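tool=predict chain=A
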Amino acid sequence: MKTLGNVTLFNFPTADKAVVSQSSMTYKAKLVYEDGSPISSADLSALTLSLIDAKSGAIINGVSNINILNTDRGTIDIQGNLAVVLTPDDTFSELNTIDRSMIFRWVYGVDNLVGRHQIVFRIVKLSGDA
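tool=predict ok
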């Protein structure tokens, strides 16, 4: 587990543990206030996701600032635990290796504070995949 400002990341693929092309993947994190207390779903007025090619900046699978606040793609509980599901279409790649970025933006608290976070992850194509 590592903390980055107001996002704590759990079990996310790194360069040595990549996501396989055309597979589903769940990203898990915890949203917290500066003091470490959780940002619950009730504290959020917005939570969006963009999925982009890390090199070109191209939007992947139409995922551009889409609402993920307790939708089928994303959930957050009262303890600030966030789970976001990427589909096989989100992780498809014709290249052997490619880097993608997820960009999160959320609005929270009574003062409508804005949080942003970007994470880059690697997708690899299995040997023999067409």
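Confidence is low (pLDDT under 50) at residues 1-5. The beta strands are 2-4, 7-10, 19-20, 25-31, 44-53, 66-67, 74-76, 81-86, 97-108, 113-124.
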